[in-house]
Every structure is written in structure tokens, then in C-alpha cells.
Write a structure and sequence with these properties.
The chain crosses the membrane at residues 44-62, 74-92, 104-126, 138-160. By secondary structure, the protein is mainly α. The chain has nine helices and no strands.
Length: 182
């Protein structure tokens, strides 16, 4: 029963409520690309994860933080699990013009790379002897969160650039066929 109830807390996403809200907005009108893109979140999740990691780590690092504050920080930090599905979907979207084999390698490498780092990361930054505050781990999380925001911005930049190049390439391919018809 727990998951029956909890599964419904995902209703905003699973029922595409943002897209439906946008489509039926009483005053604003959204284009098809806006309706398709705004609800996906994509890179915004990267920024959210970065902010979450920095703020929650800082909450734990502050000397004298109450137990309730630290519990709250850990619970809030749990929201980063949302990034996994979003980032894998975003990677697929960003690479939609790439070769299928290349896309498969990138997706597999994302998972493998995370697992390889996770194999030693916890030992170095979150070992039991560093409890209760995991100071090294909190600083590592802040660094990762900053890196996440920077990496996300880089992907946004390069994917926008690649998108423009692909559109230009498609236009170039289309122009000769139109000239031949004329």
C-alpha cells in the first residue's frame, strides 16, 4: 500500500500536469516547442541538484547546527535522486543527432563512470569514522555541486551550439533539392 500511495505523489510528472497547465493556461499561449520542452526540466534539474548539494552540505557543516536541521538537510538532499532519470533522458535528447552506437556508449559510460567513482568515493569521504558530520564529505559535496552546475551550463551551451549546426546542415541539404525542383 505504501507504494500505491507514494506512486501517486509522482502524479505531477506521470500525468504531465505542467504540460496540461500550459496548454490550458487562461491568459498565456505557448508554442509547440515550448509545450514540448518546458515540462522536461532537463538542465534545470542540474542547477537544482547543484544548489541542493551546496545548501544541504552547508547546513550540516555549520557549527552548532541542530539535529533537526541536519535531519532536514539529509532529507532534502534525498531529492537529488530525481536527477538520474532526468539526466539519462537529457543525454538521449542532446545526442539525438548522433550515431546510435555513440549514444549507447555515452549512456553506458555515464552509468559505468558513476559506479566506478562510487566504489571508492564513500570510503574516502563518508567512512564511519568521519561521522557524525562527514566534514570532508560535505566539502566534497559542495565541490561536486559547483562542478554539476558548471558542467550543466557547459552541456546547455554545447548542445545549443550543436542544435544550431544541425539545423544549418539540414537547411543546406534541403536547399539543393529545392533548386533542382525549380
Amino acid at each position: 500500500m505504501l507504494w500505491v500511495i507514494a506512486g501517486e505523489t509522482e502524479s505531477f510528472s506521470t500525468n504531465a500536469l505542467l504540460a496540461l497547465y500550459m496548454k490550458s493556461h487562461p491568459t498565456n499561449s505557448y508554442s509547440v516547442p515550448q509545450l514540448n520542452n518546458y515540462p522536461t526540466g532537463r538542465y534545470l534539474v542540474g542547477y537544482w541538484i547543484g544548489i541542493t548539494g551546496i545548501v544541504t552540505s552547508a547546513m550540516i557543516l555549520v557549527p552548532g547546527s541542530s539535529t533537526a536541521t541536519i535531519f532536514g538537510a539529509y532529507y532534502w538532499a534525498g531529492s537529488v535522486y530525481a536527477c538520474q532519470a532526468t539526466f539519462f533522458a537529457w543525454a538521449n535528447d542532446v545526442m539525438r543527432y548522433k550515431d546510435d552506437a555513440m549514444r549507447s556508449i555515452v549512456i553506458a559510460s555515464m552509468n559505468m563512470g558513476s559506479n566506478v567513482v562510487n566504489a571508492w568515493w564513500a570510503l574516502l569521504f563518508y567512512s564511519a569514522d568521519q561521522a557524525p558530520f562527514f566534514t570532508k564529505g560535505m566539502w566534497a559535496m559542495i565541490a561536486c555541486s559547483i562542478a554539476m552546475a558548471i558542467w550543466t551550463a557547459g552541456i546547455v551551451y554545447f548542445s545549443a551550439r550543436d542544435e544550431k549546426q544541425e539545423e544549418a546542415r539540414m537547411l543546406e541539404e534541403d536547399v539543393p533539392s529545392k533548386l533542382e525542383v525549380a
